[in-house]
Structures are given as structure tokens and as C-alpha cells.
Write a structure and sequence with these properties.
Length: 160
Amino acid sequence: MRARLSLILLLLVGAVVPARAQQLSPDPELQQKIAQVTGALDAAFRRGDAAAVPTFFSDDAIVSFVDLEDTSGRLAIGSLFRDFAAANTVTAFQRQLVEVQVCGTSAYERGTFLFIFGPAGQAPITQRGRYLTVWVRGPDGVWRIHRYMENLLPSSSPAR
């Protein structure tokens, strides 16, 4: 009985692992596209462009920024950024992509970030951290941020 159960488990694992490997795979072309979008998002943050920033997000996006409650929806994200941009200057919002995995119309991105910002006339705050982004490709073929979560690296750790 034990040998039969072990054989069944081995067959199940053998069937599941290759199927998952085929569904979730790296995509160098999408990685390049995400890097371009990331550059445009950084530029919009530095300009304080409250109209452009929300266009990078899906209608039902959820963002989890450091030290803030989750923000849900493109409109709320736009409002959050408008309030932030009115009170702060962004010197840099640089994301360094580490990997992207694609599964159908979703992509999972992991990386590090550098965020330098602060109220006008005051010393800037520098945050270094890690992030995870879930992208979705809409019916229009455009990849947008669907979920975004970040956390800070320990202060002694440089961003990699």
C-alpha cells in the first residue's frame, strides 16, 4: 500500500511540475517592455505628473507603498499621487528589475527600488527596498500594474 501511494504521488508530481514550468516562464521581450514602462513611470513621478501616473495601473489595481495603507483602484491611486506630488518633490523613483515570469495574460515582476523624495526645501528622504509587481495585459494589449507591493531593505543593505 505504501509503495503504491508513493508511486501515485510521484506520478502526480511528475505531471504537475512540467505543466507549471510550461505555464510560468521568463519572457525577455516583456522584460524589456517593463523596463521601458518603468523608465516612463519614473519620469512621471519626477515631473509630478498626476495625470500620467494612474495610467500605468489597471482600473482595479491595489498598491501597498511603504508606510501607507493599501490603495485600491486607478482613481484612488491618482488621488493619492496628486496629494503626494502637491507636498513633495521626487528626485528618483528607480526600479531595478530582477526577474519577470509570465503566465498567460499575467506577469510577475520582482526587483529593487530607490526612492528619493521629500517636501520642497527640506532634505530628501532616501528609501531602498524590494518590490513585487503583478502586471495584467488588458484587452487593448497594454500591460498595466495590477498589484504593487514594496518593503524597505534593512538600512545597512545597499539596493542590488
